[in-house]
Structures are given as structure tokens and as C-alpha cells.
Amino acid sequence: MSTTTLDRVIGTARRSPTFAVGFGVIMVFAFLAAFADVIAPLPPTLSHPYDTLRPPGTGAFILGTDGNGMDVLSRVIHGARYAFGIALPAGAIMAVVGIPLGLIAGWRGGWVDEVLLRVLDVLRAFPTIILALAIVAATGQGFLNVILVVGFLDSPIFARIVRAEVLALRNATFVRAAVAAGNPEWRVLLVHILPNAILGATAQLPLRMAWAVRISATLAFIGIGVQAPAPEWGAMIRQGAEYVISGEWWVALFPGLALIALVLGLNLTGDGLSDLLDPKRRATGK
């Protein structure tokens, strides 16, 4: 890492410690997800029939085993792949669907804006978890279905954020100058408005990815999303919940802690980005 890059990293951490901590947590889980096959001591679905519900610290099982004799540590590590495997594509769908809709609604105005807003309002009127549960139950419990449902359900938030920014920018001096200079509409939107209107959506993305991780875990916990023996944290918590009463707390605790840590990291990153991208804070250098 060059001195200039290191200085920028240190400067960013000083301006927003919240972002630095959150981003650090995300990087830890990203590392676990990328190198899970190397880091995990055992295959995540390898069953040891004679070692079921072993407590943490028993032999080679650092975090114990579950009811099927599978290593909890290995499953928690591999669970990071499912978390990122849902959060990243779902976040991309939210942005790809919501941002263009917000651009069009804010720029066109009139009946186009009204129609798009009413459609988005209908989508947001239903309780999200119930709507997601119903759609996944109807379309199937596949991994791809969960990603698509979570991504599309949250796209209205991005559309509204971008629309509000476009409404504030479309009468700005630099936009009027671009139109007067003869720039086509698509160029005005993509070159002059989008880079300024996307800042709020950028800060919102980690927060909505955290929401995607929570929703996917919730769906798995209630038996609708990704199912066991896949090492998905929500499914692991569901499996371990039945053992808590009998004293085998570790089966549900460790995937639950991993879920909380990643969601917290994403939320801190989003909050930190809001600070870093705030024009007032950037202008004052605070």
C-alpha cells in the first residue's frame, strides 16, 4: 500500500470512525466468505453421527457440533458466503431497478411521476416480511427466488431517494446550462444529474444490504428461505432453537452472533457513508 493510499485510509477513518469500524467488520466477513474452504476446519455439511451436540472445545470441534454432528465453526464460516451471496446481488437489484425509476420520475414529473409513485406506494404498503414470505412461498424456496424477492421489494426506497434528489437538482444552474448547450436528455440525466443524485442511494446501499441479510435469515428461520443442511445462519438458528431448552445453546448462539455482527457492520458502514458523503461535512472538513 502506497503512502498516499495509506494517508487516505487514515484520513477517512479519522473523519468517520463509524465507517472505519463497520467497513472493517465487513472485510473480516468478506475474508471468511472468500477463503471459507481454507479457513474452515471441516466441510460444512460433513456429519459425524457419533459426535452430535458436542459442546464447544470438545476435541477438534472448537464451537461444538449441531444435532447432525456437523461442525458449528465450519458452518458459521461458510454461512458468510450465503449472507454475501444474498446481500450483494439483492443490493444490485435494488439499485438497478430503483435508481432509473427515480431518475425518470423526478425528471419527467407529471403523470409519469404520479403513476410510478402510486405503484411504489402499493409495493411499500404491505408489511415487507409478510409480502416476502408470501412471494417466496408461491414461487419456491430456491436461493435465486429469495434474492429476486428481497431485491425487488426494496427497490422503491432507492427510487424515492433518487427522485427527491432529481427534483432538487433539475432546476439547478448547471443542469439548465447543460440543457441550453444542446445536450440530449439522456446525457443530462446520466452525466450531470445522476452523479449528484446517487450520493444518498450510495449511503443507503449498505443499510439495505443489512436488511437483505436479516430478511433472508428470517425467511430461513421460519422455514421458507434457504433450508438445511445448507450452512445459512437463519436455518442454523432455527435448527439450534429446539436445543436451547435442553442446554445445547451453542448451536443457535454462534450463527446468531455472526448474523448480528455482519448486520451491525453493514449498518455502521451505511451511517459512516452518510457522514462522509454529506456535502456540509465535506465542505467543513469535519
UniProtKB/TrEMBL annotation:
Keywords: Cell membrane, Membrane, Peptide transport, Protein transport, Transmembrane, Transmembrane helix, Transport
One GO CC term on file: plasma membrane
Primary location: membrane
Subcellular localization(s) per the UniProt record: Cell membrane
A Pfam short name: BPD_transp_1
Name of the featured protein: Peptide/nickel transport system permease protein
Keyword Transcription in annotation: no
Membrane topology annotation: Multi-pass membrane protein
Transmembrane segments: 20-40, 82-105, 125-153, 211-229, 249-270
Family named by the database record: Belongs to the binding-protein-dependent transport system permease family.
Organism: Falsiroseomonas stagni DSM 19981
Domain ABC transmembrane type-1 residues, every copy: 80-270
PANTHER family the record matches: D,D-DIPEPTIDE TRANSPORT SYSTEM PERMEASE PROTEIN DDPC-RELATED, OLIGOPEPTIDE TRANSPORT SYSTEM PERMEASE PROTEIN APPC
